[in-house]
Amino acid sequence: MSNINTAIRYVPDARPNERLSDLTAAYAQQDNAAVLAEAVRRLKTLATEQGTPRLFDTAGIGCIGLIGEYGPVGYGIRRAQEVIRVDRTPSYWSHAFVIATALSESAEQNRDLTQAAWIWESSLDPTGSFTNFAGRYGAGARRIAEYNNPTFDFFSPHSVPNIAVIAIGLTERERADLMQRADHPDVDQLHYDLPALLGSWFGYLSNRADRRNPLSEGQAEYSAAYVQLGYEAAGLDLAPGSHQRNIAPEHIWQTAKYLYQRLPTITEPSEPRTTGSAPSVPRRDPVPRPVAGWYCVREKAGVLVPPDFTGPRSLSEAVSQATVPPQEGRLGRPASGRTRRRGAGGG
């Protein structure tokens, strides 16, 4: 039986975060680069409205990204997180990462594999240039444009129907500490042994008949553990209420949606007061930590592939479908960077 007391956090009177905005209706038919561009525009507006732009980086640096993927790994992790949901349904999310460089208000730039923002992550499928680094340290980097394709493509490395950007208010010092810690993924292997977590999850995902769910054993999901590694340097627990270090992308989502008020307050200096001719030391007044987010969820059921998709059944058929004219680019990726869907259900 699942060790549910370490996983489920239920607050009966919790109310959804009003700053968590659903973009699905407007962006379900667009790619993820467009969702990211809209998130940046809204982040800049929010920073201005709050009157404290220093608590949000308006380009998204230090924000958390969440994605939910098709495919065996995405499917397995989304289903594994059923044990940390009260309703025991699959999570929308299979992966988490830290946004390391500026997102753009231009969707075109966000989908450009040479100009899009860098993200830092722990992944079972590191991008080619960082395979050896990730194998050694358990984390690597990639351009966020690699997660642009929202439709299922049998020949695409990543098909990502669900995406979210979570912005947690941070002081400049907290954000600097977060990024410095995340820049060194091997800084605390005693508590965050990312290579070991990757191995554990690979074993579970490839042999579910004999391996227990790592979350039920109190083990973290590797990508969320890496994000927590960085945020721990800022003094933030992204899974308040969990008694073990079994953080997963779903914990981060639930914290942003329901448990945001349990994050520690921010202590900011107020205007200095004067007594006679000498100013007093500025007092520090705690303020609630703002949390905002923007998400687009196109696939809620947690399926391996879309029900209407039929792919090749032989290697020769796969080769013929994967071969495309040179002007279209590698594996059918048009010059715009968007990937077209293949198979019977494709466009």
Tell me what the structure shows.
By secondary structure, this protein is of the alpha+beta class. The chain has one domain. The protein is built from ten helices and eleven strands. The strands form three sheets. The chain has a seven-stranded mixed sheet, sandwiched between helices. Strands 7-10 form a two-stranded antiparallel ribbon. Strand 8 and strand 9 form a beta hairpin. The longest helix has 19 residues, at 32-50. It starts with 19 loop residues before the first strand and ends in a 25-residue tail after the last helix.
Give the structural class.
alpha+beta
Strand order of the largest sheet: 1-11-6-2-3-4-5
Q: Distance N terminus to C terminus?
A: 44 Å
Provide the gyration radius in Å.
21 Å
The proportion of residues forming helix, as a percent range, comes to 25-40%
Number of domains: 1
Strand content: 5-15%
Chain-averaged pLDDT? 85
Number of helices: 10
The coarse silhouette is globular
Order of helices and strands: EHHEHEHEHEEHHHHEEEEEH
Total strands: the figure is 11
Q: Note poorly predicted spans.
A: 1-7, 270-275, 325-347
For the largest beta-sheet, the strand count, sense and barrel status come to:
7 strands, mixed
